[in-house]
């Protein structure tokens, strides 16, 4: 009996060519589950590599889902890249991956529109014919062209996007001829089965918050041992143990690092954390719920850098609202929060968006990861955590 080839055998010593051959075999054999095994950021094959190398590997992996099929457990990774990605190769790969879904669905439309906004002034030529194509590649595309191809694949399911796409068609110098032709066919296609509610052309970036089909990104975990002894240092150089800070009140904690080059990830996360603080104050909850953000990059993100980064993004500091770095290895927190991050030789090479709600015992109640989180939704969850516990003692 033939043993199924597993992605677990791949690690940081695996060459890029071996990785690409593994992906190619899985694509040819329509084995999407082998590809799914390679999606998590902490997969050993991504460790100790540069960010550019990991981007190339993950882009090639995502594109393979078009042929192998895109299972639902892989969908959040694809939507994440469309919603927050700024790399043309990765965004193009994600748009292509969507065409591997078993059925066409309008739930992807807001993410594709967001991808257009993210990439239209940073578009570039891409090719997925091989891992290292020779340029000029005869069948190359661009990220916008891949997005246009996916809108065309969606057919009538993309009808809600027509007002935004029409506006894009009217912008000079943005679309290639092939992308323009594809989008013109989408805009002109007759509606089937009645018209859907159109996505507002004025705010495509925010339309996804109203989508009922948005995947559930909340994960409730079983209770686990709190890394109470981990020492943290805040933006003022004040040190506190993890267990001391996070067991006094319910908390909202995010992860970030100041050297992140994607404004849709760390910078936006900390900006939203500052807005969240102001909403807590509006509701009189600022004294009952703590906020914190912990850097992935403690050796570089010293206290003064943490303070400047937070202040520049509207964070309000107090004894219950801080930015932290670990005073030792980040590993205990990586394990406790099951962080989606991997590291090259000296720097983060990939990470997801990560926000966690902790109860008064520092247990993770829910995790909002990968896709953008909504301030009001987090506020509602946090308010429930701050409600008095009237249950009788056990």
Describe the structure.
The longest helix is centred in the last third of the chain and has 20 residues, at 263-282. A seven-stranded mixed sheet has the order 4-3-7-6-5-10-11. A two-stranded antiparallel sheet has the order 1-2. Strands 8-9 form a two-stranded antiparallel sheet. It starts with 15 loop residues before the first helix and ends in a 9-residue tail after the last helix. It folds into two domains: 7-210, no CATH class; 231-385, Glutaredoxin, CATH 3.40.30. Strand 6, helix 12 and strand 7 (321-326) form a beta-alpha-beta unit. The protein is built from 14 helices and eleven strands. The radius of gyration is 22 Å and the shape is globular. It is of the alpha+beta class and 394 residues long. The relative contact order is 0.11. Helix 8 runs antiparallel to helix 9. The model is unreliable at 192-217 (pLDDT under 50).
Tags for this model:
single chain; 394 residues; alpha+beta; Glutaredoxin; 2 domains; seven-stranded mixed beta sheet; 14 helices; 39% helix; globular
Number of helices: 14
* Total strand segments: 11
Helix percent reads: 25-40%
- Rounded to the nearest angstrom, the distance between the terminal CA atoms is 54 Å
Radius of gyration: 22 Å
């Amino acid at each position: 009996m033939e043993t199924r080839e597993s992605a677990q055998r791949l690690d940081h010593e695996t060459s890029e060519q071996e990785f690409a051959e593994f992906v190619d075999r899985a694509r040819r054999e329509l084995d999407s589950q082998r590809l799914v095994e390679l999606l998590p950021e902490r997969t050993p094959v991504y460790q100790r590599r540069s960010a550019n190398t990991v981007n190339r590997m993950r882009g090639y992996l995502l594109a393979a889902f078009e042929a192998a099929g895109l299972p639902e457990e892989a969908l959040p990774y694809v939507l994440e890249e469309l919603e927050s990605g700024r790399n043309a190769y990765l965004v193009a790969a994600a748009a292509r991956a969507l065409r591997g879904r078993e059925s066409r669905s309008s739930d992807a439309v807001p993410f594709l529109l967001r991808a257009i906004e993210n990439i239209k002034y940073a578009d570039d030529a891409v090719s997925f014919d091989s891992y290292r194509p020779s340029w000029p590649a005869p069948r190359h595309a661009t990220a916008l062209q891949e997005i246009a191809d996916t809108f065309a694949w969606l057919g009538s399911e993309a009808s809600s996007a027509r007002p935004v796409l029409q506006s894009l068609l009217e912008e000079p110098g943005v679309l290639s001829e092939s992308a323009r032709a594809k989008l013109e066919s989408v805009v002109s296609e007759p509606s089937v089965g009645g018209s859907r509610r159109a996505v507002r052309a004025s705010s495509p970036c925010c339309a996804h918050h109203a989508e009922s089909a948005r995947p559930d990104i909340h994960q409730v975990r079983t209770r686990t041992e709190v890394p109470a002894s981990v020492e943290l240092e805040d933006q003022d150089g004040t040190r506190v143990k993890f267990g001391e800070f996070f067991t006094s009140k319910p908390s909202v904690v995010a992860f970030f690092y100041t050297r992140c080059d994607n404004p849709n990830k760390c910078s936006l996360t900390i900006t939203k954390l500052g807005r969240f603080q102001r909403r807590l104050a509006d509701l009189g909850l600022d004294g009952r719920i703590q906020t914190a953000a912990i850097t992935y990059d403690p050796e570089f993100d010293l206290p003064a850098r943490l303070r400047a980064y937070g202040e520049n993004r509207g964070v309000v500091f107090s004894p219950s609202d801080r930015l932290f770095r670990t005073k030792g290895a980040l590993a205990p927190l990586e394990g406790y929060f099951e962080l989606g991050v991997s590291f090259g030789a000296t720097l983060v090479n990939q990470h997801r968006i990560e926000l966690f709600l902790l109860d008064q015992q520092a247990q993770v109640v829910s995790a909002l990861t990968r896709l953008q989180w909504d301030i009001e939704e987090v506020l509602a969850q946090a308010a429930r955590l701050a409600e008095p516990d009237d249950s009788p003692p056990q």
